[in-house]
Amino acid sequence: xxxIRRIVRDATFRGYSALDTLMRWESVRRGEKRNIFPYQxxxxxxxxxxxxxxxxxxxxxxxxxxxxxxxxNPFYNETRRLLAIxxxxxxxxxxxxPDNSLLREFCRWVDSADYVPGLR
Length: 120
Description:
Layout: H1 2-14, H2 18-35, H3 54-66, H4 76-87
Helix pairs in contact: 1-2, 1-3, 3-4
């Protein structure tokens, strides 16, 4: 879920393609293991910000980005894995996400009525 979040956020706010984010993901994970996880227990507060419906909201944003990765690309298998996860879900309208939700950090809002699964 975190990788799908990151793909959507990077595309929305940084202009990165899904491939750009996949290529950086290993470095992101290394940085977390070195600079975050060893110290997280010292934080004053920790919370899990994932939401039950999060992937359903991210699906119409992530799918078109992932479908741009060609079968000849070394990251294609990971792309297929992420698409398979998203494929199990029905899309949820972003209009149902509360205004104060942390999920808004990861999304630009689209009209879910315009979304067609699997369409590039």
